[in-house]
Automatic annotation (TrEMBL):
Signal peptide: 1-28
Name under which the protein is recorded: ABC-type glycerol-3-phosphate transport system substrate-binding protein
Signal listed as a keyword: yes
Organism: Saccharothrix ecbatanensis
Keywords tagged on the record: Signal
């Protein structure tokens, strides 16, 4: 694989391919297919931006294995990570790979606007097409039920914590908080005894709204109520008031939330991995990203089930990732793209040989194997996959027990479905104001946010 930080992040995975010119048409090929002089169809596939060398090597090895099994396909990589701020511009500018990933919340909108390819015919041929977890499969389905996008990962939110800071603060790292009162108490103790941030909160790039919604769900609230075609904002509620009151107390009374109140996902991961944050909320399977992109030390890591209020509607926000295909490629390229999705993302979940090959490759390049994740297929298939790869597991599963022992039992609640990212953007401002203005009035903040969300989802 050839790449350089100084060059555009589009690379070829085989040396032979480097000298082969590309043509957009070839005998018998679709005009939209990109075909090399050797007759191979060329597809670009997404690779997470910012990976360390070992992770890039692991990705490259898997791509080479795919090319060996599909000799008529030339795979190239392009660094890509979905962000709300850049995605629309990337999509409009045509700089997104042929195969890329998006969050569940974007699936239906992209399908309705035909901004991704209809690969339902190709997906239907996959051996596990009828065994996808229906609760996650619907995120990639059109209104008629056809599967335009493939769910490749699902998650429920969790409380991530630094075991080393817990120990230094005199807390038991094997007994993380199980209530929000305990979270507040632990955060205060971490700050007082270590000088580090006890609890940090994402607030920008729409992640502030994402996590604020997560806490609202955990307290028993909901952001919106959908009845038929009607959408009602439900931001200004006792549950969300409880969330903001808790955060305000931690920020202004306990001073346990540090000094950075503009964290996004990448920034908070970086500071957590560096040992500067005691606790934060994010997807339960985030360990892999923390290790491969941020150099997290395994011995520092702990993860626990998200604390839930003792209310009947309290639940864990759940979401996930869809693999999708660009609408700008031809039929032959679409066939190759779905084969790549099957091989790289899904094969390791549904096929023993593929699962073992993937785990072996990751283990050989010191990448995480065995990170807990909610299944995109049925529980039986998930359990089989875990057994197939058990010998290669290299993550500290014992340190994840406070999460894994409860992750299948906690009630999952899907993200808001109407104008999701726009709603999150509105709530970014709510939490930023709360954490930066000591005089901020919670009722006024919620009334303003509720009105703005209603205006947004009413249009949606």
């Amino acid at each position: 694989m050839k790449s350089s930080a100084a060059r555009p992040l589009l690379t070829r995975l085989t040396t032979a391919a480097i000298v082969l010119p590309l043509v957009l048409t070839a005998c018998g090929s679709d005009p939209d297919d990109q075909v090399g002089a050797d007759g191979k169809v060329v597809i670009t596939v997404a690779m997470d931006a910012g990976l360390e060398k070992a992770a890039i090597d692991a990705f490259t090895k898997r791509a080479e294995q795919f090319e060996a099994a599909n000799t008529d396909v030339d795979v190239r990589t392009r660094e890509y990570t979905w962000t709300a701020a850049s995605f629309t511009a990337q999509l409009a500018g045509g700089t997104i790979p042929d195969v890329f990933t998006v969050p569940f919340t974007d699936g239906r909108g992209l399908i309705e606007r035909k901004q991704i390819a209809d690969v339902s015919e190709q997906v239907a041929k996959l051996p596990y097409a009828s065994s996808l977890n229906p609760n996650v499969a619907k995120a990639g389905q059109a209104a008629d039920g056809k599967q335009w996008a493939v769910p490749i990962a699902a998650y429920g939110q969790a409380l991530h914590y630094n075991r080393t800071l817990f120990t230094q603060a005199g807390l038991d790292p094997d007994k993380p908080p199980t209530t929000w009162a305990e979270v507040r108490s632990a955060a205060k103790q971490i700050t007082e005894r270590t000088g580090q941030t006890g609890y940090a909160q994402m607030t920008s790039g729409n992640t502030g709204g994402w996590i604020l919604t997560t806490l609202d769900y955990a307290f028993g609230g909901r952001i919106e109520k959908i009845t038929g075609d009607q959408a009602e904002a439900t931001v200004d509620t006792p549950e969300m008031t409880g969330v903001l009151d808790t955060l305000r107390a931690m920020r202004w009374e306990d001073n346990s939330m540090g000094a950075n109140f503009l964290y996004d996902w990448a920034g908070i991961n970086q500071d957590f991995a560096a040992g500067r944050i005691g606790m934060y909320v994010s997807g339960g399977g985030n360990y892999g990203n923390l290790v491969t992109q941020n150099g997290l030390k395994a011995e520092d890591y702990g993860v626990a089930a998200l604390p839930l209020a003792d209310k009947p509607d309290a639940g864990v926000l759940g979401g996930g990732t869809l693999a999708v295909v660009s609408p700008k490629i031809g039929e032959r390229s679409k066939e190759a793209a779905v084969k790549w999705i099957d091989f790289y993302y899904m094969g390791k979940l549904t096929d023993q040989e593929a699962a073992v090959a993937d785990a072996k490759t990751l283990a050989e390049t010191n990448q995480p194997v065995g990170v807990p994740a909610l299944p995109v297929v049925d529980r039986a298939t998930y359990d089989k996959q875990q057994e197939w790869t058990r010998q290669y597991v290299n993550v500290p599963l014992d340190q994840m027990t406070p999460y894994t022992s409860k992750m299948f039992d906690q009630p999952l609640v899907t993200e808001p479905t109407r104008s999701t990212q726009d709603v999150y953007k509105i709530l970014d401002q709510t939490v930023q104001t709360l954490l930066t203005d000591q005089a901020a009035d919670v009722p006024a903040l919620l009334a303003k946010a509720d009105a703005e969300v209603q205006a947004q989802i009413g249009r949606g």
